[in-house]
Design a protein that fits this description.
The chain has nine helices and eight strands. The model is unreliable at 149-157 (pLDDT under 50). The protein has helices spanning 12-19, 23-31, 57-65, 88-94, 102-109, 137-146, 177-184, 189-197, 225-237, and strands at 9-11, 54-56, 85-86, 119-124, 129-136, 174-175, 209-210, 221-224.
């Protein structure tokens, strides 16, 4: 007699990151009883305890596979030189978003999902400083080609796979976001970062250190394998 395999559960933040949407939009698809091109309504959550909703990841992925093409899929950005710098509002419009604050929202609420700016200018005065973030058109084009969800163009390069991380390694070893994402069962660093920013990984809210002597990784957050596995165990019980 074979035992029934438990479904892998995913929250709105993880689904949103994979589909190139926002967590609020995922919740909206559920509450609006949205239908895909096959006439199927958005799946019911497997677990609705409190405000946290968890869906069967396979069911949601299947629903999106039959979803009508997103508006952004047909968006043709204007022709600009690859080195042209755009601020957040200009980048939002270039990418086809109606909301000119969309890029700002990604940077604030979904760390790791949208690329870091190519240039950061310190503006204002000593009493009232502010930072101006700018992205190259080439950076935006590369993100459009590889972002999660139905906005990704056919034939585009997939995001690099997550590393193979052993669970039985040194429990005090400091691991980065990609390793944590792998141990927690996420498909991408973006999914992990989005879920973390939404407060869905409370045991990882604080870090155990930062990367040092690691080139471009310097200053990046690190957690012990022990803490990540504790969070994985808690997540599996939800």
């Amino acid at each position: 007699m074979t035992s029934r395999r438990e479904p892998r559960l995913a929250d709105a933040a993880e689904i949103a990151a994979e589909q190139g949407l926002t967590p609020a939009r995922i919740t909206g698809l559920y509450t609006e009883r949205a239908e895909n091109a096959a006439g199927e309504t958005f799946p019911e959550p497997v677990d609705k305890r409190g405000r946290a909703r968890l869906w069967d990841h396979a069911e949601v992925t299947k629903w999106f596979a039959h979803r009508a093409p997103a508006r952004l899929a047909g968006h043709a950005p204007p022709s600009l030189a690859p080195d042209t710098l755009l601020n957040a509002a200009e980048a939002s419009r270039y990418l086809g978003y109606k909301n000119s604050n969309q890029v700002t929202t990604y940077m604030r609420d979904h760390p790791g999902y949208f690329p870091k700016p190519d240039v950061v200018e310190e503006k204002g005065t000593a009493e009232n400083p502010y930072r101006r973030q700018l992205w190259k058109v080439q950076t935006l084009q590369e993100w459009m080609a590889s972002r999660p969800g139905r906005g990704r163009r056919a034939g585009a390069k997939e995001a690099p796979p997550l590393p193979d991380v052993p669970v039985d390694g040194d429990p005090d070893e400091l691991l980065g976001a990609s390793q944590a994402a792998a141990l927690l069962g996420y498909k991408s660093v973006g999914s992990f970062s989005s879920s973390l920013s939404q407060g869905n990984l409370p045991l990882l809210k604080t870090t155990d250190g930062v990367a040092e002597n690691a080139g471009r990784q310097n200053g990046r957050r690190r957690w012990t394998r022990r803490r990540i596995l504790q969070q994985a165990a808690q997540r599996s019980r939800q």
